[in-house]
Structure formats: structure tokens, C-alpha cells
Amino acid sequence: MEASRLFGGATRSLTYLYCINDTSSFLSQNPAAARKPYVPVYAKKAELERAVAELRGQLGEDAISTDDEDLHRHGYSEWSSINIDVLPVAVAYPKTTEEVSQIAKACYQHKIPMIPYSGGSSLEANFAAPFGGVSVDFCFMDKVLALRPDDMDLTCQPAVGWMSLNEQIAHSGLFFPVDPGPSAMIGGMVGTSCSGTNAVRYGTMKEWVVNLTVVLADGTVIKTKRRPRKSAAGYNLTGLFVGSEGTLGLVTEITLKLAVIPQETSVAVVNFPSLRSAAATAMSVVRTGIPIAAMEIMDEVQMGVVNKAGATKKKWKETPTLFFKFSGTPGAVKEHIEQVRELSRKQGGGDFDFTRDAEEQKALWSARKEALWSMMALRREGDDVWSTDVAVPLSRLADIIEISKKEMDDLGLFASALGHIGDGNFHESIMFNKNDPEERRKVQECVYRMVDRALEMEGTCTGEHGIGLGKKASLVKELGLDTIGVMKKIKASLDPLGIMNPGKIFDLQ
Amino acid sequence: MEASRLFGGATRSLTYLYCINDTSSFLSQNPAAARKPYVPVYAKKAELERAVAELRGQLGEDAISTDDEDLHRHGYSEWSSINIDVLPVAVAYPKTTEEVSQIAKACYQHKIPMIPYSGGSSLEANFAAPFGGVSVDFCFMDKVLALRPDDMDLTCQPAVGWMSLNEQIAHSGLFFPVDPGPSAMIGGMVGTSCSGTNAVRYGTMKEWVVNLTVVLADGTVIKTKRRPRKSAAGYNLTGLFVGSEGTLGLVTEITLKLAVIPQETSVAVVNFPSLRSAAATAMSVVRTGIPIAAMEIMDEVQMGVVNKAGATKKKWKETPTLFFKFSGTPGAVKEHIEQVRELSRKQGGGDFDFTRDAEEQKALWSARKEALWSMMALRREGDDVWSTDVAVPLSRLADIIEISKKEMDDLGLFASALGHIGDGNFHESIMFNKNDPEERRKVQECVYRMVDRALEMEGTCTGEHGIGLGKKASLVKELGLDTIGVMKKIKASLDPLGIMNPGKIFDLQ
Q1: Are B344 and B245 contained in the same domain?
Q2: Quick one: B276 and B327 in the same domain?
Q3: For chain A, what is the radius of gyration of the CA atoms?
Q4: What ipTM does the predicted assembly reach?
Q5: Is residue A475 part of a domain?
Q6: Of A495, B254, B264, B275, which alpha carbon lies 20 to 30 A from A139's?
Q7: Do A270 and A366 reside in the same domain of the chain?
Q8: DSSP secondary structure string for all residues of B258-286
Q9: How far apart are CA A303 and CA A301, in angstroms?
Q10: Taking a contact as any Cβ pair under 8 Å apart, which residues of chain B between 329 and 388 contact chain A?
């Protein structure tokens, strides 16, 4: 595509340019805002063109795309709770850390926002481009660079999917235990500090990252740590970049700890007469000290969704249901199953549906893993699914699920609930007609009431999806302006021009 | 003590004042340094006096001590690898977060350094006062404020010891699993991001802190999170303050996750013909996926130290030895013991010395826990012990222990080695005559060569003690100036006057 067409061809690109202009004119008309120390002013059209031309000169013509479909794919997501009417202006496709650094240097020089992109499956518009700028797509940086079985770690690039990664290293007897949605990639998983069903045993992303190679706003490349599994040396920069959603730097290499594939794994499913009895069982399992590998709750609606989507051969009873994963040495697994069976019986749990068949086990667990996809599969023309998560102190999980479900029911919304019940983390997926603004408004209000409810219970507006654009207001409610002020100071110190994924987590102004 | 005596009575206080003056005069004579954006200039004598008088007015006469012995106790440590010739000028004894905030406001206004103090057992001069200032001793903030068994968490103040904490909550069936030296307190444990023998199963401090209440440099009080066990909401400030050694703020309240006391626990000890065979056993235990509760290595010297110090009833064989802790459901513990017994036999491990007696179990494990104290107990008049730690990727632990031991032996130093072998973390304690500068120099060189060796192996200069004053140069070697530059920017953004525990982790200039 010619450079002259670059910013004129796509309505969406134009939208973006207006946005940039709007921002600049807002600032020139609001000298008070401009006086604030941290009000970014981004490049105008001519400078953007210069930067793209420069980068094409340095990295090759193909390294920067301005193709409309490409821009759309990098600025819009059907998974996301919200989408905006602005797209990135260009997509960069770096192949090395050095190229990422060159991109950052150019963007820094010309004041152009940079938005990292890997799996594109985040849910809170985490990779949307409200100020336009360059989406940095890591798809060519998708390699496992080094596997070190004796150190139980590996180093990889951002665009490796966690499932692919586990397939690639299975021969070593090791695996990476953080298991979010199937399409997530390590880069984005670092960005949102994600987790998944294994978190109750293995913890979340921040417990598994040993070090990061990060390209800072001005193109400087740093490594946050060397490669020990444990370190008390200096500030925990690794833990700061994990979960910062690309607002502090672009992660280009990740060293991950690995766990040993357990000697034996087993999956069991138990249905319960009520959400309360399922939750009571889960808590008694935790409090009895049975080291469960995973423990998930799915409500009757979600079980129906699994049945309707035909995700498993078996038809499941449509009641509140607990999914258990057991793992460990063979005798331990057997013992844990017996103890859990006894605890669930006490709460009126049904038969212990217990798949010995490895394939069925996989299908069963993937039905849980793909719950959101099952929900998506049931959409009719014009339907959309709003999927969100909150987390609360353990004892409040049953309360918040029950209250939130009742509210959805009362409003006649089709919504399913599932939760990482050992972590107090709960997801709700709500189906709605996207062409009906009134219905969307109802859903949105329900979601934010649920978030407020979580905060009242001393919980968080997101357990594992991040803030993105979608939950900025909730974060202010959650932590208050002084705490967010600390985050802003850190952001300003590392990204003084405000070009790293701007508009995410908090507003800069 | 009268205010007029305040800064004149103690030689050590005077030393401090000269230090302040020296710094100021250094700056006035070095305009280039003064031009740098972040060169702190601290209060002079008159201002210090004003601040102390103000604080006494606000908090009561007893809230600020300038007693010589008190100053000494807060600036000097017999545990520490180094001590300096400067002491704090005053010790503040706050009773509430509000009082800590008042102290910070006064120190901020008058540019006075603040150094947090709790257990005083850190090893790298983490609470030394190179620029004088006020040591903030949390000894009156030593309460468990709330225990919430149903949420499996608690909130406490900084000066609760972890052992006392566990005694106080034992009735709930829960415990806090991070287990550093017996005298450590939660505040300091947050500061140094410590760990201990349980880390191989439970992880380190940063995995167990839910939220922190922090008083910032200017007295602002923030809470880093609400109280969910899992959160992806905004920057991980909790994880940033953990391990920042008081250089970013003063932690006044800590919410900790708790774990369930396992159904059964067992301890076993096995001796090995060589360090290599012990290490090989440890690695095979890890790689077989046996979920060990703890696994420690002690060399023949350390075993001799335990014998000589009479820490247990039993006399131990003085060879390289592995200590195992097993925990879980009863059958699992039995199965894990059998599997480990088999693996150790394959490497020539001796009989599985297996204490069933709960008291002996406790004594045995505490012999491991109190290894450093045993070493200290063997000091003769004039002796000192230099205790330090490094961590390396798992596969290199045996190498570094072996090389380092040989070097000590060749130099005729009495040194013992012990390690958290499942984490690649290793401690060395070296006895020396503190009145013999030549011997001290030899020890110091040995220590820093060991650190360099760890870095060459892609390890870290400290696995769990922190940087303090002792390892600043090593940190520069470990991470390089660009990475430390990021830390400094963060520090400058949150502590623009450089008054929070200055001189620790990195130099501000």
C-alpha cells in the first residue's frame, strides 16, 4: 500500500485521525489540562506518516500494515465486553526484540501510541486503540526459544499459545500450569496477569514468570531478572510488568517456571441440589486440606449450555455442578477422591461421576474450559455475549453468585455462571441482542451492579481479565484515587509521553 | 532527654550529623551531581530538632527516643554481614497507621530519612541508617487485627513474629506458611520478600500477601488492594512494595493468605556419601512430581555444627544430608515417603531416619531452622559469622555449593553450607575473627566471588535476604544499569525527596 493512501483510505483510520485531532484541540482549548504534568499529546498526521515511512525503511515494507481489515482485526474483538469506534492506524509485525525496540524508538520520537497484541482474546478491550497508534502484533515472535528441563524453566516469545507451548514441551514431562481460555497467548497472559482452573493449586501468572525482556517506551531493552526460581534482589519488576496490560512496556521474551506433569490425574463431576450445597462442599474440601488440583462450579444454566452445544458425548444433569481435578501420586489421588466423595455426600451431592477414560476426561474438562465458547456457539443472529469476572473473599462467593443470578433471572436475561470456587473468582456470561440498545443497557447495568456488589464484599472488579477500557471506573471505586495515583506516578516515570497502550487501566489525565 | 541534648550527647549521633553535612557539602562542591534530578539533600541539625519536637508534641514525649542504646540497637546488628559507623538520630514508636502518617508528614516536610524496623534480624544491613534519620520501630504495632477463617486470611500489624502469629491462629486449623529465621516479623518479611524451607511447596512472601496498608513518603495512606485472594485489577502494587525494603513506603498493615494445616506431617533425614548424590536425589524427587512439603540440604560441616551446638537429642552422622518434610492426607504422606526412600536408595542414600515422635520431629526440623543460631553459638570471643545467600537455576545448585565449599576449605575458613535445594537457593555461613582485618577481607572476597559465580550461572545475588547495603554492587552486576534505572525512576516517582530508607538496594545518585 502506498504511503500516500495510508491515512486516507479507511473510514476507520480517519475516525482515528479525528480522534487525535480532537485530543490536540481539546488540549489547546483547555490550557488548564495542558498545564497538568502528564497530559499526553500525540503525533499528528504528517508525523505519523513520517514514522511509518521510517519504520518501513528500517524493517521492510511488510513489517507495517495499514490494511483496513488488519486494522479492524487489531482494534475490534467479538469477545470483548466493549468495543470503540477508533482503530489503530497501523499494525507493526516485529520479528525480534531489536525490531520492537526500533518501533518503540520511532514511536517515542514521534509520540505515537503503541498497543501490544498477541492472542486477541482478552475481554475488556485490553488491546483497543482509543488514541489510534500502532498495534504491535507479535505473531512472528511465536517460538519457544529454550527449554531447560533440568532447571524446570523455558524462555519463549509473546505469541506462543499456552496450549501449543504445553504440546511442544510435553516430551520433557513438564508443563506450564496457567490455563486461561484456549486461545490465549503468553504475551497477553503476562499483560492481564491471567489465571484459570489450575490457579487453586498452582497460582496465577505472576507466580510463574521468572523474568521478562521488556522494551520500554523509549526503546531501551531491559531484563527484569536473571533466571533463578527465587530472588529477593531489588524491586520485583517482573511482578510489576505482569498485569500492567502493556502500559509500562512491551514484553518480548518471557522465562516461565514449569511444573512436573503429575504422576496421575483424574476428573470427577458431581451435581448438587443447590448452589449453596455445592459451595459448602467446595469450602469443606478446601478447609479439610485436600490438595485439589482444580475445583470449578458451573450453574444449571451453564450445564444446559454444555448440553446444548454438544461439547461432550454425555448429557449432563442440569443442576449446580462441581468439577474436580485430582492429581498427584496414584495412592494420593485415590485418597483425595474418597475424601471429596464423602464431603460431597454430606452436602447432598449426587453420584460421583468419575471418568476413567482419558479421552472423556479431556472432553469433560474441556467442556468446562470452553464454557464461554459453548455460550458463544448458542448465539442467534444479532446476539452478543457479555462475559465478565469478579473475585471476592472465599466466604462470599456463593452469596454473590446467588444474588447476581437472581437479578439476571428477574430481568429475563439468559445468563450462565461459573466460578473458580477455590479462589473466590466467578464468571458470568450474559446473552443479549446487540441491536437492542435497551437490552444492552440492562446487561451493562447488571454487570456493573455485580462489580459494585463484589467491591462491597471487599472483592475486586476483576479476578483474571484485567481492567482494559471496560473496568476503569470500577478500579477507581475499588482502590480510590490515592492508590491509583501511585500507579499513575509509576506510569509517568516509565512512560513520560503516555504512549504505552494509553487509556487502559486508568485515564492519564 | 532534653531537646538541647538531643544531637550533642552521643558520639554516634554526631557521626550521623557529620554524615549529613558531608553529603550537603559534597553536593555544593559538585554542582554536576547537584544538577542530577534525584540527589536528596537531608535536614540539618536545627531542622531535625524542630521535627523531633513537633513529633513529641503530636505523639507524646515517649513516642520518640534519642537514647544512645536505643539508637545503637536500631542501627547495628550482630546478624548483619556489614555494619556502618552511622546510627539513626531518633527512634519513633508509632502505635497506629495514623501516627506513622504523622511521622512521615513531619519527615517529609523536614527532609528526614525514615527507616522501618521490626524484627531486626535481616542480614544485609537492611535497617542500617547511613544517612541517619528516624528509625520507625513498629514494636507497639504487633497485633493480629482480624482472623477470618472462612476467607482463609488475616490482617496484622508489622511487628508480629511469624511464629507467634502461627501460635495465635493455630486453633483455626490454618497457618501462615512462610518460615524464615525464627525471629523474623511480618513487616520485615514483607520488606525483604523473604521465604524459607516451606517455599518449595508454598512459595515466597509475595505469593501470600493479599494487600498492604502503606504510608507513603509524604504521609499519604494507601491500601494496595481489597481482599480477594486473586485479582487482576491494576498494577500489582502489593508485589512491588513486597521486597522494596522500605524504600517506597512504610507498611503498617498486612493482609495475609493462610493455608490449611495438613492432615498429616512427617519429617525424615537421610545422609549421603557426597553432596552430588544428595543433590541428585533432590532433583529426582522434584522431577518425579512428588509434592514434597520441604526439602533441605545441609553439608557435613553444618551437621557437625548441629551436633556441637547440641540442638537435638540425637547425634547426627556428619555427611551431606537431606531433610525432608512430607505433608498431606495420611495415605499420600506414606506414599510420598516410600517414593522418596526408593529414589534416595538409588543414589546411595543411607537409612531413612524417620522420626515418628512429634517432639523429636519438631526438634529435628528446628535444628535445620536454627542452623544459623547453632553456628552463632559456636563463636569464640572475637568471632563473627558472615551469613549470606544466593540462588541459581536448579541444575547448578550442586556446582555452586561444591566450588564455594572447596574455595573456603582451601583458604582454611570454617564455613557451613545449607540450601533450599528445591528452589536452587543456598546459604553459606562463614566463621571469622572480626579483629583480624586480613581474615575478614578473605571472607568478604570469598562471599563476593560466590555471588559472582551465582551470577555467571544466571542466578541472583540473593534468594531471600534482600540487597540492603550489603549487595548493592552485586545488584548492579546482576541486572545492569538500565534495569536499576527503572527501579530508580519508580523510587523517584514515589519518594521524590529520597527519604524512604535511603541508601538501600541502590544508590540514589
Answers
A1: no
A2: yes
A3: 23
A4: 0.92
A5: no
A6: A495
A7: yes
A8: -EEPPSEEEEEEEE-SSHHHHHHHHHHHH
A9: 5
A10: 329-332, 334-336, 339
Radius of gyration (C-alpha) of chain B in whole angstroms: 23
Q: What is the CATH number of the domain that holds A234?
A: 3.30.465.10
Q: How far apart are CA B68 and CA B433, in angstroms?
A: 27
Domain CATH code at residue A462: 3.30.70.2740
Neighbours of A439 (CB within 10 A): 18
Question: Chain A 224-253, CB below 8 Å of chain B: which residues?
Answer: 224-237, 239-240, 242-244
**Residue A173 Ramachandran class (φ > 0 left, ψ -120 to 50 alpha, else beta):** left
Cβ atoms of residues A101 and A219 within 8 Å: yes
Q: Does A228 contact B482 at a Cβ distance shorter than 8 Å?
A: no
Residue type, B88: P
Look at residue B373 and tell me if it is in a domain: no
**Based on the domain organization, do B196 and B211 belong to the same domain?**
yes
The three cell numbers of residue A357 are 477414560
What pLDDT shows up at residue A11? 30
pLDDT at A20 over 60: no
Which of B138, B155, B137, B158 lies closest to B147 in space, CA to CA? B155
Question: Does residue B11 have a pLDDT over 50?
Answer: no
| pLDDT (0 to 100) of residue B109 | 96
Whether residue B208 sits in one domain with residue B320:
no
Considering the domain architecture, whether residues A96 and A209 belong to the same structural domain is answered as: no
Q: Which amino acid is at A41?
A: V
Tell me: do B119 and B34 sit in the same domain: yes
Tell me, what CATH number does A289's domain have?
Answer: 3.30.70.2190
Report pLDDT digits (tens) over B192-216: 999 999 999 999 999 999 999 999 9
Residue A103 lies in domain: 3-139+490-494
- Least CB-CB distance to B505: which of A230, A234, A484? A234
Nearest Cβ partner for A459 among B223, B228, B492: B228
Among candidates B233, B243, B335 on the partner chain, residue whose Cβ is nearest the Cβ of A460: B233
Spatial CA neighbour of A487 closest among B218, B497, B222, B38? B222
- DSSP designation for A262: P
